[in-house]
Give the backbone structure.
Amino acid sequence: MDNSQLEQTSSPQPMSLEEAKNVMWLHSNHKPIGTLMEEGFMTRDKLEWAAAKAWDPRLKEAAAVILAASGESTDKQQQSKSITASQVDTSPPPIDVYMKLSQAEQTIWPLPPFKGQSIGPLVQSRKLTLKDLGWAIENAWEKRVRQAATVLMLNRLSQAINEPDDRVTYTQTITGGTSYAQWKQIQLSTIKGMIAGAICAVILFYAVWIAIRFITHQYALIIPANKNQAIGLAIATVIAVIASLIVWKIFDFFNDATLVKLDRAIQNYNKGQQGEDKVADIITQTLDGTWILFRNITIPGNDKADIDMILLGPPGIWALEVKNLEGEYRNIGEHWEYRIGEKKELMKKSPSIQAQSNARKLRNFLRADKINEYVQPVVVWANQEHTPVIENPTVPIWLYESLPEELGNIWQKDKIPQAEITTIKEKLTKLCTPDRQNAKS
């Protein structure tokens, strides 16, 4: 056998379209790609993402094959338009939901006048309208209420749904209490109240003093005892007016220089908290019950750290630094910069360095109990409208719009024994006890 024949026999055969459609998608929706295409879940954007970024080489190749085939079949798709409407199934595909219909009907409605009653009977009796369900989907505080409202609205609209398997459980969330963003909002609001109260007290004191002086000398102002007293009172009145203007200017200065800045800082921390809540919702809806999400964890000791989120599951441990910033940002390596007008400024606290530092401190904390698992640092960018430019990042950057795919990609294989997961869970849960939370505050 010559070299050319040897090369032909040893070179791998390219994947066929049928083989590509049988390749399984990410763990977040672990079905064959062809099945997901038929269900309407698989879009071209998802395939393009997988062809470029999927960690599994077989999934990456399958996405590329399907994309190439879809490009070649464009002419055939144009010809298929001649099919009559009666031959085409126009019914919408079933929608995946995260709660069974029976569970949704048993969920308790949180608002008066039906507070405490099951949602199912309220919807059946038309006491709750589609408008009420729509409000709950958008604004309900509890995740269970939002999911129940979604299921019941789809049912009212006669939309087919795919209920979750009985074996599927949700990601457990354990919180360490008040987050850093919430704590800063409380702190800044307290400072703002103290400053505003002090200014109001000064103005009130001065107004009372002016009133007393005016009442005391009212008669003398009308009928002055002599010319000198009249001149003195006139001068005192001018001084009082000038002093009032000065006090007002001081108040205006503090309002612009201090109170407005405090309001802006409070709003920024509030946006940060909203970003963390959105990311937590995606995680709990994407991953199953084998995962635990810890929120607002403070690592104690000299190597103290405030970690937004810790994700623990069979494949490993992730320390998540969540950012919900507005404006133009750029990540180069471990450095982050933002644009102010025509200038670019480096961020004082790099999110990448923060994530690396938190992962290192968490790893050291676990090593104290001889747990030698690697902790992967990640920056999660929660703002869809202001996506950063990313160049050669030293730390993975998960964008909000691709977060489900990123979460599906991390599940390659089980690396941590269940017994060790239990130990880590117990160790981190102890940081969430009331005594620990009081010590943290």
